[in-house]
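Q: Start with the shorter request: fold the first protein.
A: Done. Sequence, then structure:
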Amino acid sequence: MTEAEGKDGNSADVRGSDIASYANAVGESPSRRTSEAVLRGDINRLLTRSDSTRRTLQACTDAIVSNLNVVIARIWTLKRGRGILELQASSGLYTGLDGKYSRIPVGHLKIGLIAETRVPYLTNAAPGDPRIENQEWVRREGVVAFAGYPLVVDDRVVGVIAIFARLPIGAETLETIGSIAGIVAQGVERKRSQRELRRAIKANREAVLGERTRIAREMHDGLLQNVTGIALQLRAVLPRVRSAPEEAATVLERILELTERTSTEARLAVVGMRHIAESGDVVKALQSTVERAMEESALDLSVNVRGRTRAMSSRVCDAATSIVQQAITNVLRHAQAQSVHLAVEFGIRRLRICIRDDGRGFLPDRGATGATHFGLLGMRERAREIGAELRIRSALERGTTVSVFVPYPAK
């Protein structure tokens, strides 16, 4: 039902379909009909623009005020799954989008009731109308009429459009507002669909980029390092093939084992799995990683575990072992160290993993270039993925310490 002014000047309930019949008593001039036809075309054109929803709807209310004899035109939108109408556009006497009427719960005030009932509301007797709350403003501004329409798409309310006028609203004007409400509703829904599509495209692009980064990091952390090791060992064994064939055969067997392991790690990288992280035993995973990385090295290795051990997620194990492997690789390639110390400490709130060497060190702001730089970048990315903090301390001739602080998950 829609409230309107009866013949005796009092309020009367009029069905939405009867609004035009009720308003026929109000005359319509040819110039007004032309203006309203232009307005419908303008609204259609504005809603096809690529502007944001708010700018587009603001342009629509501006056009309504310019073409109809109204003092205020406003549009609220209703997000899916929400119960609050949000003011998106306001033209005429008030152009601000904040204040008392910027957020209206569905079912509250005249605007919220329009959204709840999905029925238009009209009155040509605004002074004294119980649904128009601010009667002092109505009298001060000389407002006579109000018309509000729900914006409905596929039986779902997406907003409300409303106007205030100082003259009674006629039949053709009501028809124009009703058609504009339908056009705006479709436009709001189209804008929403476009936003969701853009978000989906962005998420897909980020997922693809993340996967590329992961594969590149996996290749750097495992595959490329192992291939480099194979090439170095092959180059070293060549002089021994003739002079010491038995020794060369032993070396070649180790190279074959490394080759097979590289193949396995490459397959695991493609599917995003790391076999060393499956058990959740981060200490075992770290020790296995360090021992494997240093099996061909003469460096002294010491391991210290403190605190009450606890199982960690496969993501944490995977990231931690990759960081430690990269740290050990940097020691072997660049540090010229004599010893390496691995410390794992299970604290009260977080896990601390520390790799310390006694090598030549570097200046963190200048020494991280080339392959080393990419390794440090990968370490930071790994830490960020699990919400961990990575700290690197180094000084010339005083070694390097790489520490990872992993917070425990909230219970």
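Q: Next, the second protein, separately.
A: Sequence, then structure:
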Amino acid sequence: MLGLLEIFYAPSKLFDRVRERGMWLPAFLAIMVCALLASYFVVQGIGMETIIRKQMESNPRAMEQMGPEGLARVANSPLAKGMAYGAPLIFTPIVLLAIAGLFAAGLSLTGSKLRFSQVLGATSYAWWPYSLITTLMSALIVSVAPNKEDLNLRNMIATNVGAFLDPTTTNKAVYAFASSIDLLSFGLIGFLSYGLARVSGRTFSSCFGIVIVLWLIYVLGKTGIAAVTGR
């Protein structure tokens, strides 16, 4: 558990221990807790009915068919609340494992022979500060927002270019791309590269190349989906 604090003041020592021991579970679980807390703050601060309404804004016909009573019924159902709190616990570990797997594959191409636990540890501990910061910022934004219904749930933290664009009038592909130009994400990319370099023994530049290529693939895929679906 000390590693969750040590990452903020002695990351090199922590990543060296990750290389030696392959530890990953504390950070992995901490990220899951952050994801659950972020969901809790949003649901409690904004309300399930408002969340569902904003998610259905792109489908006004379905919204009209559902009506206010139907919306309230869905929002208050155990299924809706179960999905709101269960989704972070399901998808967060899947995403972390998938990303670590891709990093492991990329590092193997450079000749690194790492155990998956080492790569997962580097990924989890590098991701943990990002997860903590975004959770705290989300909680703060929800708590101080004068009109919570005006919050953009898909882009609530204004550290990216997309936060300064109108999501209703901006081209969806442009908006998706602009939302990816994010200061916090760039910090995460740098920290992931540092952690992977420290654990693998490879240069920072080679690990940065792996991380940035995967990030570019993600951004292009996200932008392409927005262009095709218009969402």
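Q: Describe the second briefly.
A: The chain has a mean pLDDT of 90. The chain has one domain: 2-229.
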